[in-house]
Inverse folding.
């Protein structure tokens, strides 16, 4: 293998740069040239490429976002568009493609190999932790730490004013961020897409906590379950006092990646290149039981990652 390409696609996630750095440096050390594709699939179609060498990825590991930038490229769902992408890659002598991104991006990669025979390796990068067959995706840990930090600050003001705070966090289809953040900040309750919300029980729990003497109250809501405004509306007339709403929004995507994400990204980046080098592809790098293992792309993408319900039980048990 003489030349590969790497891109970041979909929603950006902290740690993507560490993955790009690992891909580039490990490839260069193995005499493989690396083309950086800027702006995901849209940049691929526009031939928005940069040659990357060892030095070009210096000092990027600690940066949030992605230096290759990212995009959503709706036309990539069309087969003709993917055919065009494959011919562009062939024209540039690219023999393998590494795609760092979420479920959508990995679908694009899977189709590129299935239909157009472009050897691809995926690296899961998304803050939602909604990709199956891997314990964690790159960016989840950093996002979680950002959320925990924010909730901790809200708890300070919630205690001072004896208020209830409804905090909306990311998680369109997965309640992972809300559950773990709720668990480790001692939130009163979590509202997640996996479990239908019972406002009556939620209101009663908050009232009980107040009777017990607790002066702050935090409810963590995953955006895919309900909006913080809806939860607040349902709760206020049941608990009889005002709530405050905080929507954490895009700050959850930013920030310097944690040590965990840098390490995960570095390990996955090296493993991805190693796979292509050995002539293997059509896999996603996954973290399973502490090891980086390859899992077949079609198997990953036909599954929906389920939330570990033990975490939900633990949250309820301890609050
Ligand atoms: P995140 O989980 O952070 O949002 P993502 O990778 O899932 O990241 P999407 O917007 O779903 O983000 O997908 C990114 C890009 O991948 C899309 O803009 C499109 O170019 C491509 N893509 C998504 N779904 C498909 C699909 N079914 N077939 C081909 N390409 C796809």
């Amino acid at each position: 293998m003489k030349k590969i390409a790497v891109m970041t696609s979909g929603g950006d996630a902290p740690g993507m740069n560490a993955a790009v750095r690992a891909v580039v440096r490990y490839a260069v050390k193995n005499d493989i040239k690396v083309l950086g594709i800027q702006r995901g699939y849209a940049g691929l179609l526009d031939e928005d490429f940069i040659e990357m060498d060892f030095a070009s990825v210096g000092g990027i590991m600690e940066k949030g976002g992605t230096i290759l930038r990212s995009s959503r490229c709706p036309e990539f769902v069309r087969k003709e568009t993917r055919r065009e992408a494959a011919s562009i890659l062939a024209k540039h002598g690219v023999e393998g493609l590494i795609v760092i991104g979420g479920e959508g991006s990995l679908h694009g990669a899977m189709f590129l190999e299935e239909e157009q025979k472009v050897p691809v390796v995926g690296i899961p990068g998304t803050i939602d932790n909604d990709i199956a067959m891997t314990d964690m995706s790159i960016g989840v840990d950093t996002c979680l730490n950002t959320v925990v930090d924010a909730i901790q600050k809200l708890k300070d003001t919630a205690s001072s004013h004896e208020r209830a705070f409804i905090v909306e966090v990311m998680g369109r289809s997965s309640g992972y961020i809300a559950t773990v953040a709720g668990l480790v900040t001692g939130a009163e309750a979590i509202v997640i897409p996996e479990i239908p919300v019972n406002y009556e029980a939620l209101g009663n729990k908050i009232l009980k906590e107040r009777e017990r003497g607790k002066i702050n109250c935090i409810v963590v809501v995953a955006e895919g379950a309900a909006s913080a405004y809806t939860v607040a509306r349902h709760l206020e007339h049941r608990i009889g006092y005002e709530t405050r709403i905080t929507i954490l929004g895009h700050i959850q995507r930013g920030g310097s990646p944690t040590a965990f994400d840098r390490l995960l990204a570095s390990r996955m980046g090296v493993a991805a290149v190693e796979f292509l080098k050995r002539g293997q592809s059509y896999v996603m790098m996954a973290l399973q039981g502490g090891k980086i293992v390859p899992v077949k792309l079609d198997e990953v993408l036909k599954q929906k990652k389920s939330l570990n319900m033990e975490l939900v039980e633990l949250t309820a048990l301890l609050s």
Observations:
- DSSP finds eleven helices and eleven strands in the chain.
- The radius of gyration is 21 Å.
- The mean pLDDT is 95.
